[in-house]
Design a protein that fits this description.
The complex is a heterotrimer of chains A (about 240), B (about 625) and C (about 160). Chain A folds into two domains: about 80 residues, Roll (Ubiquitin-like (UB roll)); about 110 residues, no CATH class. Helix content of chain A is about 30%, strand content about 20%. Chain A has eight helices and eleven strands. In chain A, helix 2 packs antiparallel against helix 3. By secondary structure, chain B is of the alpha/beta class. Chain C has two domains: about 60 residues, no CATH class; about 80 residues, Glutaredoxin. Chain C contains seven helices and five strands. A five-stranded mixed sheet of chain C has the order 2-3-1-4-5, covered by helices on one side. With about 160 residues, chain C is of the alpha+beta class. The chains are: A alpha+beta (about 240), B alpha/beta (about 625), C alpha+beta (about 160). Chains in contact: A-B, A-C, B-C. At the B-C interface, helix 2, strand 12, strand 16, helix 18 and helix 24 of B face helix 2, helix 4, helix 5, helix 6 and helix 7 of C.
């Protein structure tokens, strides 16, 4: 156990955990956008900045990847942090327009008006969660970053349909601003942002669509399961098993 | 070349080469680095070679018996191509291939000085024959650049003949690794890449780490636009960098090294590659160096063209074959750097200091510089200055001494306005700060930075808002784009600055620009974003009036911002000669021969050709 | 789609062997491949991914991140304007504007007929010569719009001045 102070509150943190984690367990709110427990910390959105005082010196760090250390004093809501957070959110809204998720967060951190020209040229905040979940969790490596600086964006390679994409929808699920659309109709699943269209597979037992062809193939390659199991949806599989 | 297997081999080789070199005595040196070649020094070199051969001599004899040497830059780049005749150090400037036969016959063979090729004192107009008497050199202290001009950088024998690799010999055979770390700590050498972190402390931390593999890296990704000392060092004296790296590797216990070279520097890449190959062949890199049991080798990593790769974590990502995206540095590279192994990363100039410190000792080195910043620093003195080039001075020399005593002041009749130091991470300083001694801390305090040593001189025809916009434009494209404040903050800063230069901003925009600058500095992930607002903040601090003139009066006092200026023809001076009309690329000039011409401001693209070609000074900026 | 001069599979395996297939040398591998094709065709990037088993999204990221790489064919004549600070304060932007006007392409673009590529570079480290323009590898120092225009005429890139 490591003893730290967050906003004056004495907290016992676990060895090796991040300041963000410790704060969350203690019920202290720190805004985040690019953080998700499913993937490694990325420290890119900078919303989770906190002040850490150690040996009489104060520094600004991202709480999502800063490891707790014995005796540090953390402040999550100083004037400096409030200013930085507000401006960062203003910058994101200037980029994307006022999406519901950002609006909610803006209210929470106290953004009154966006003083920059709202360009609304892209709805993506470039938190990289979709890319990272696809790389680190799904392992499909179907989408990635393109370019650098102001030109940076998330696309499938060459911005065309990628056969490695499983259309699994993990990217849509993890997106903190909900901008990756996913549609299902007539036995297909579509992710227009990635130009992806996949045929859905119907369960041999109940007839309901339950996975894309690519997902089935991926599971087949990984597990070598026979068709009798592969083409049965999880619900029916469980049902059969209990019988 | 014989392989050097033990201490005595290197000592003997040095003795023989030194004697051979002394016997030769006289020689001609021609700078053949990138900057010099672009001024035609290659043709001068060839012509000299031919003339020397014609005179019955062998221009490029075996080993170090050379009468003609192609060398690194002598630094005085505005006088290139430069030819120097040793040992007297007769300095010829702006030499043409046609001058070769006179140089060979008169000066080399008969000791006669050719006056028309000499540098003339700008005040007295008196010719100055010898290099050391020229003001540009007189006020410098050239330690790192000492070998430029006297050795062929592509020959390891040349380097050894003047005492090269003697520091390595001393370090490996007379010193223990902790002693070397102590010596570097005591020298108070600080990293020359920008931030000025004490090198010895970095080494000490890496040395104490327990690891199967450790790395040393030389950062030669000199991305600062306007700085080229690292290119010049690598091209002109690559072995000093290699020697420094081997000593550093021994001190911290590293077995593997990388030199990360910027792709825009093909010649530096070539000379670094050659130096490594030659050192390896000689036995100074590889297994069991000098028979001491210490093994170390260096590889070249070629950059892909990204300014952000100069940032340490980004550079290491790039060496690992990834995009140069920085990550947070809560764990230091000396603990977990390249491939998560302890890593010491220093830049070219820092490494080149190491052999000097080991050779001469920390005490000697400590006599140069200021209390907290020791040694010399190379600056690239460029822009609107008269004497342009690479300048090496003790840290603590004042800006005025560098710009006026060495640089000779402003090139034209215009007035000095500002000096930019530290590149895109640095700031712009006004005339009132010229007597400030240059060191890491004073520059940072003044809102600028030492950076890698770019020093860009600006005269009254430089617009400070345009300069700030220039840097933010550069950085917004060079940002990796990972973190919000840097990517989006620079986008908005560029937007505001562009509107200011177009006369479309309000006074509120100035305040917003300032607040945003502080947030980008505060909240960005890496050094690029954390220093990016410096050019804006420093110009706002020292040249706020100029911003106000753009915003309030829609006026660019320096006459630079295209949207706020208009070219016009002065009727009294125009002779109607058609010169400007013929040359205008967009047909914006009206008027027949003999008539006063007129510029159509709507068609005009503000290229300024009319002003350049007018021999009657009849075109001006309104 | 024009035929590529060298079979991607062959070129890639040749270059990869130069680096013992070490994925850490990806930047150099791509640079060497670009030297063969003068840009990085999609097929070549796909082939690199195939042979190295490195996911294509990573290679694509690298190829679009570094300025060294071009994903589109480039012009026969490459005109590079140095926009380093020393060149900028001496007015290189005016020369760049003029070139853009004369060639009918924006900076860092290639003309439709693949004749010219106009590009900028951060700094070539020859600051005393600034402003510098490099045409197919040849350095031109102290460039002004006037001198640039005369070079263009001499090279036949423009027929007449106005």
């Amino acid at each position: 156990m490591v003893k730290i102070t967050i906003d004056g509150k004495k907290i016992s943190a676990k060895e090796g955990e991040t300041v963000l984690k410790a704060a969350q367990r203690a019920g202290i709110f720190i805004p985040t956008l690019c953080n998700n427990d499913a993937v490694k910390p990325y420290s890119a959105c900078r919303m989770c900045l906190v002040e850490v005082a150690k040996n009489g010196r104060t520094k600004l760090v991202t709480s999502c990847d800063y490891p707790v250390e014995e005796g540090i004093e953390v402040n999550t809501n100083t004037e400096r942090i409030q200013r930085d957070r507000k401006v960062i959110l203003e910058l994101l809204i200037a980029r994307t327009g006022e999406t519901p998720e950002l609006k909610k967060l803006a209210e929470k951190v106290g953004v009154k008006e966006v003083r920059f020209k709202v360009r609304n040229f892209d709805d993506c905040i470039l938190c990289g969660l979709c890319v990272r979940v696809c790389d680190e969790v799904v392992g499909a490596h179907a989408i990635g970053f393109r370019g650098r600086g102001m030109e940076r964006e998330v696309v499938p390679p060459f911005d065309v349909e990628n056969e490695q994409c499983l259309a699994c929808g993990a990217c849509a699920e993890i997106c903190p601003v909900n901008i990756i659309d996913i549609f299902e109709h007539d036995g297909t699943r579509e992710l227009p942002k990635w130009h992806k269209k996949s045929r859905l597979v119907a369960c041999r037992v109940c007839g309901k669509y339950f996975a894309t062809e690519e997902e089935i193939e991926m599971i087949r390659a990984k597990t070598g399961l026979p068709d009798e199991i592969l083409y049965v949806c999880p619900d029916c599989r469980e049902h059969n098993f209990t019988i | 070349m014989r392989s050097i297997r033990k201490k005595e081999d290197l000592l003997n080789l040095y003795e023989n080469l030194r004697k051979e070199r002394e016997k030769q005595g006289k020689f001609i040196s021609v700078c053949v680095d990138t900057g010099c070649l672009a001024t035609g020094s290659g043709a001068v070199f060839s012509a000299l070679k031919e003339e020397i051969a014609k005179a019955g001599l062998n221009p490029e004899g075996e080993g170090v018996k050379k009468i003609l040497r192609g060398t690194g830059s002598l630094g005085f780049d505005s006088e290139n191509p430069v030819v120097v005749i040793y040992p007297e150090k007769i300095f010829y400037r702006k030499v043409r291939p046609g001058d070769a036969k006179y140089i060979v016959h008169k000066t080399l063979l008969n000791g006669e000085i050719i006056e028309r090729l000499l540098y003339k004192d700008p005040e007295t107009n008196e010719p100055i024959p010898y290099l050391d008497d020229i003001p540009f050199y007189k006020h410098q202290k050239r330690l790192l650049l000492a070998n430029h001009g006297i050795i062929d950088p592509l020959s390891i024998e040349e380097y050894i003949s003047i005492g090269g690799y003697q520091a390595l010999l001393k370090a490996l055979t007379e010193m223990e690794p902790p002693q070397i770390v102590e010596e570097v700590k005591k020298s108070k050498l600080r990293g020359r890449g920008g931030a000025g972190f004490p090198t010895g402390i970095k080494w000490e931390d890496a040395a104490k780490r327990d690891s199967d593999i450790k790395y040393v890296i030389c950062n030669a990704d000199e991305g600062d636009p306007g700085a080229y000392m690292d290119r010049s060092l690598l091209e002109g004296d690559p072995h000093s960098v290699v020697e420094g790296m081997i000593i550093g590797a021994y001190a911290v216990g590293a077995s593997h090294g990388y030199i990360y070279v910027r792709r825009e520097y093909p010649k530096a890449l070539e000379s670094a590659t050659k130096a490594i190959e030659d050192a390896r062949e000689a036995g100074l890199l590889g297994d069991n160096i000098l028979g001491t049991g210490f093994s170390f080798d260096i590889e070249i990593a070629r950059g892909g063209g990204a300014f952000v790769a100069g940032e340490s974590t980004a550079l290491m990502a790039s060496i690992e074959g990834k995009p140069a995206e920085p990550h947070t540095k809560y764990i230091h590279a000396t603990q977990a750097g390249l491939y998560s192994k302890p890593t010491v990363l220093n830049n070219v100039e820092t490494w080149a200091n190491v052999p000097i410190i080991i050779n001469k000792g920390a005490d000697w080195y400590g006599n140069i510089g200021t209390e907290k910043s020791k040694g010399t620093k190379i600056f690239s003195l460029v822009g609107a200055v008269k004497n342009s080039g690479l300048v090496e001075v003790p840290i603590g020399t004042t800006l005025r001494e560098v710009i006026f005593d060495i640089g000779g002041g402003i090139a034209s009749e215009k007035k000095f306005k500002a000096v930019q130091t530290g590149g895109p991470s640095g700031g712009v300083l006004p005339e009132s700060l010229l007597d400030m001694p240059i060191d890491f801390d004073t520059l940072t305090k003044a809102g600028s930075m030492m950076g890698s040593g770019g020093m860009i001189i600006m005269d009254e025809h430089t617009c400070m808002v345009d300069v700030a916009r220039y840097y933010i434009d550069f950085l917004s494209k060079e940002s990796c784009g990972k973190c919000t404040p840097c990517r989006e903050g620079l986008r908005q800063m560029l937007d505001i600055l562009t509107r200011i230069t177009q006369g479309e901003a309000t006074m509120d925009d100035l305040d917003l620009l300032e607040e945003l600058s502080y947030v980008v500095k505060d909240a960005s992930l890496c050094g690029l974003g954390q220093t990016a607002p410096n050019p804006v903040l420093s110009t706002l601090k020292y040249f706020r009036d100029e911003y106000v003139a753009h915003v309030r009066d829609k006026h660019c006092p320096a006459g630079v911002c295209a949207a706020l200026i208009e070219y016009e023809i002065i009727p009294e001076k125009c002779t109607g000669c058609l010169a400007c009309k013929v040359r205008c690329p967009v047909g914006a000039i009206e008027g027949e021969k003999g008539e006063v011409h007129k510029i159509d401001p709507d068609k005009c693209i503000r290229c300024g050709i009319c002003m350049e070609v007018c021999t009657f000074d009849a075109v001006r900026i309104k | 789609m024009p035929q590529l001069p060298v079979e991607p599979a062959k070129a890639v395996s040749e270059i990869l062997s130069r680096y013992h297939g070490d994925p850490a040398r990806m930047i150099e591998i791509l640079q060497d491949l670009q030297e063969i094709y003068r840009y990085l065709p999609k097929e070549v990037i796909e082939e690199v991914s195939h042979q190295t088993e490195i996911p294509i999204n990573r290679i694509y990221h690298i190829a679009t991140f570094y300025k060294a790489f071009h994903l589109e064919p480039r012009g026969e004549t490459i005109i590079t304007v140095c926009t380093g600070t020393a060149c900028h304060v001496r007015g290189s932007f005016r020369t760049l504007d003029l070139l853009s006007e004369r060639l009918g392409v924006k900076p860092n673009e290639t003309s439709g007929d693949l004749k010219y590529t106009l590009e900028t570079v951060g700094c070539v480290g020859a600051c005393a010569l600034g402003p510098i323009v490099i045409i197919n590898g040849k350095y031109y120092g102290h460039m002004t719009p006037d001198r640039m225009d005369r070079v263009l005429k001499r090279m036949g890139i423009i027929e007449k001045y106005s």
